[in-house]
């Protein structure tokens, strides 16, 4: 590739909010046939809001939400922000957490009002030896609507569930339709529950889902696809996505996401909208064609 045409292409990209780091990223993007997308903050707005508080017998909505929000004050996860905002909107008085601990890809733990509290997904409850069988139907019905359900336990006894919903970005569906037309195979990779992930994937026409993935798994999934001969781009926004963005043939970061994600990526979409990938693809195709 001649430096001049590459410069023209990166300049045109930048004007439309698609920042291409270097010639290598531009050239490589032409060969990509598989796109892995993170869910939260990439397909969705990444601003979940609390939609349900479901106490078990013996607890109340107020108590459940107060304890959940108190614990989540220590977390920077978007799910935590949804729970804390939900409690604040309802005017609840939060207390303090001691011995706070974030369990990556699973949830949070700590001591609230002297009691050991845990909040997170089914895997976290499994680690604590808590049986979720009685709640499975209610949880699944919520997940089928694309919601993320979290469980709350006090002293290893289940006290209820909270559920949040994270709207899909307005531009996501159209972008995925266009990317399919351009020949991409599209795979969602998420730490969220399989059922929630599938509900959202179905709406968006996504080809495959890898759910319940721990952060370190995303890079491994990409490596496996590469070993099978796929040329892989990864789109993500989180701190957790950085290793996967680096492993991909081309990493695509959301400009609205974490700085380390942007640093690990070859392409940054300033607005955080996936239609930037469509633009990037068209740009590489024309540029590489003109060069040859
Ligand atoms: P994602 O790919 O959706 O960003 P994460 O690895 O951050 O995934 O989280 C995976 C799952 O772990 C979440 O869907 C949630 O069930 C649980 N989880 C993670 N952090 C928290 C938290 N602070 N509070 C409650 N649940 C959490
Ligand atoms: Mg994310």
TrEMBL record:
GO BP annotations listed: copper ion export; copper ion homeostasis
Keyword Transmembrane: yes
Coiled-coil intervals, chain numbering: none
Compartment(s): Cell membrane
Presence of keyword Nucleotide-binding: yes
A GO-annotated cellular component: plasma membrane
Gene Ontology molecular-function annotations: ATP binding; ATP hydrolysis activity; copper ion binding; P-type divalent copper transporter activity
Main location: membrane
Keywords: ATP-binding, Cell membrane, Membrane, Metal-binding, Nucleotide-binding, Translocase, Transmembrane, Transmembrane helix
Record-stated family: Belongs to the cation transport ATPase (P-type) (TC 3.A.3) family. Type IB subfamily.
Record's protein name: Heavy metal translocating P-type ATPase
Portion of the full sequence shown: 401 to 692 of 749
């Amino acid at each position: 590739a001649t430096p001049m045409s590459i410069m023209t292409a990166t300049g045109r990209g930048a004007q439309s909010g698609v920042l291409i780091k270097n010639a290598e990223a531009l050239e490589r993007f032409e060969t990509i046939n598989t796109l892995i997308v993170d869910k939260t903050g990439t397909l969705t707005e990444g601003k979940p809001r609390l939609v349900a508080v479901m106490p078990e017998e013996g607890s109340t909505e107020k108590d459940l939400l107060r304890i959940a929000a108190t614990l989540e004050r220590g977390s920077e996860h978007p799910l935590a922000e949804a729970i804390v905002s939900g409690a604040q909107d309802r005017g609840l008085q939060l207390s303090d957490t001691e011995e706070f601990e974030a369990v990556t890809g699973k949830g949070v733990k700590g001591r609230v009002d002297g009691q050991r509290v845990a909040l997170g997904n089914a895997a976290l409850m499994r680690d604590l030896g808590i049986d979720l069988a009685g709640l499975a139907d209610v949880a699944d019905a919520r997940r089928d609507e694309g919601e993320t359900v979290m469980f709350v336990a006090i002293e290893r006894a289940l006290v209820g569930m909270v559920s949040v919903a994270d709207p899909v970005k307005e531009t996501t569906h159209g972008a995925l339709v266009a990317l399919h037309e351009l020949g991409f195979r599209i795979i969602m990779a998420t730490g969220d529950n399989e059922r929630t992930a599938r509900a959202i994937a179905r709406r968006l026409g996504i080809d495959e889902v890898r759910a319940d993935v721990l952060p370190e798994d995303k890079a491994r999934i990409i490596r496996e696809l590469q070993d099978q001969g796929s040329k892989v781009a990864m789109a993500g926004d989180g701190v957790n996505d950085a290793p996967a963005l680096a492993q991909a043939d081309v990493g695509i970061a959301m400009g609205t996401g974490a700085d380390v994600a942007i640093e690990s990526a070859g392409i940054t979409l300033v607005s955080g909208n996936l239609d930037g990938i469509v633009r990037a693809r068209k740009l590489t195709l024309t540029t590489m064609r003109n060069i040859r």
